[in-house]
Amino acid sequence: MTSQVLLPGDAIPSSTLTPNTRLLRGIHPSSPPTSKQAGTLQSHPKKRTLTLTPTNIPYTPLTGDLVIAQVQRTVFEEFSCSLAPHTPSAFLPHLAFEGANKKTRPQLKSNDLVYAKVTFAARNMETQLSCVDPATGKSEPEMLGPLTGGMVFDVSVALAERLLRRDGVVVLEELGEKMQGGFEVAVGKNGRVWVDCPQGGVRGVLAVGRCLRETDERRLTEDEQRRVVERVVAEMGLG
Prior knowledge:
By secondary structure, the protein is an alpha+beta fold. The chain is 21% helix and 30% strand. The chain contains 4 helices and 15 strands. Strands 7-8-9-11-10 form a 5-stranded mixed barrel. A 4-stranded mixed beta sheet has the order 1-5-6-2, with no helix packed on it. It has a 3-stranded antiparallel beta sheet with strand order 13-15-14, with helices on one face. Strand 3 and strand 4 form a beta hairpin. Helix 2 runs parallel beside helix 4 and helix 3 runs antiparallel to helix 4.
């Protein structure tokens, strides 16, 4: 997969077009095709598709999204949670955790983090979250629930989506292979990535954050991501 940044009205490079190319999100099917908005043009030769992923867009909750929510306060039998700046609060019921009852529910306080799933989202209505799969009552396979330790890094919504889809982003896989002891990660579609590195400690967490930031800000290709990971791991003595 190849990618490049375009501005609104830019012509789609002819080198990415073939008679069988399908134009997907963000591309106007004019002659020649042009970009509808600023974003990263992603070419998938095997799938024969072109997609324009918007950059710096605000997060809008959708049912089924995985998110990293920050607890603000308790409101009756729910936690009021922040998902992103300028996004209305979401609500997480106290019992929406695996095996939770009034005695065993997590005692979360302000600023605590949870990895949750959006179970309901609609315009002008309260967004609802849960830390269990509604169908099974379990936190797996996404390992939903409170996030303890580690650090959270802000990334663009576009990068968060690509990380979740594993679409042209190899930075986390490369770090996992090269960092001794590995690390734990949770990606929220709301533009947050939580990282914990029990063996590498703070240096390991910061290394992951640096690689994510460079990948995001510089719109790195897969090969460029691999080179950044090699450099950062070496610089921080984590190999």
